[in-house]
Specification:
263 residues, globular
Length: 263
């Protein structure tokens, strides 16, 4: 049990470091890695992953605000974040409905793995060809809100807090360079996961787990976010891009393994 606890904390820490650097929340690593270990149920892992990412993204957003170095545009941040709340609620409702509908939780795990693979693969294609792709500078409130709903839905449904696809949509619609997109992505993650947590608590669907695990994951998530922020400040966008692409490949490999495991 002790070695499993150590592995969970290590995964939470390293995922939060990388997630903070790239602006993807860390849950996109925590969720599939813990799924592959098979040490907890799908529902429990989704909840713990989402809560950890909520803690690390909240820390990152607060520290970014205090430093005065946040590049997030208010015109985009507010409607996208509000949309993420709606999407987070909707995504959690769909996930909960599927959990209650299907007796075989492995089926849901296979769906999550396949969805994450498809989204990550699409993100990889976009990232590899983004210099050839025309991007937009949209500030329309409706478009911002709808994009927030979509991102909030997938982050909540997949239990990953946020994902690489956050950066793609933010880059494509709003022409954000990767560091600005990373900061905006953390805002989206924070709001969507807060909404998801509230729905889980109000619907009394919080899974059972050892309290020391969630406290440890939250702590190491915050510590990872703190280290990730420091590293991010020292890296240029080109290096963050390379780390992002490498991470996408790792995520896709894990998703393939998880899909066949659950199938």
């Amino acid at each position: 049990m002790i070695y499993l606890y150590f592995i969970i904390m290590l995964v939470s820490f390293m995922a939060s470091v990388i997630g903070s650097i790239c602006g993807i929340g860390g849950g996109v690593i925590i969720k599939p890695v813990l799924d592959s270990l098979g040490i907890m149920s799908i529902n429990t892992i989704s909840f713990l992953s989402g809560f950890t990412v909520l803690c690390m993204s909240t820390y990152s957003v607060i520290m970014g605000g205090k430093s005065g170095k946040s590049n997030v545009k208010v015109k985009i941040k507010i409607p996208v974040s509000l949309g993420a709340v709606v999407g987070g609620i909707f995504g959690k409702m769909i996930f909960s409905a599927m959990i209650s509908q299907f007796t075989n939780a492995d089926f849901i795990g296979a769906i999550q793995a396949s969805c994450l693979f498809i989204l990550s693969f699409g993100t990889l294609l976009y990232t590899s060809n983004k210099k050839k792709i025309h991007t937009y500078h949209i500030e329309n409130i409706t478009v911002c809100t709808v994009s927030g709903v979509l991102l909030g839905f997938f982050s909540s449904f997949l239990g990953i807090g946020g994902g690489p696809f956050n950066l793609v949509l933010l880059s494509f619609l709003f022409s954000m360079e990767i560091k600005e997109a990373a900061q905006t992505s953390l805002f989206i993650i924070m709001f969507s996961q807060f909404a998801s947590l509230c729905i889980t608590i109000m619907s009394k669907q919080v899974p059972s787990f050892n309290i020391s695990i969630i406290l440890g994951m939250a702590l190491f998530g915050i510590l990872g976010a703190a280290m990730g922020r420091k590293i991010n400040q020292k890296l240029d966008s080109a290096r963050v891009d390379k780390l992002f692409v490498f991470l996408l490949v790792i995520i896709m490999v894990i998703c393939i393994c998880n899909f066949f495991k659950y199938l």
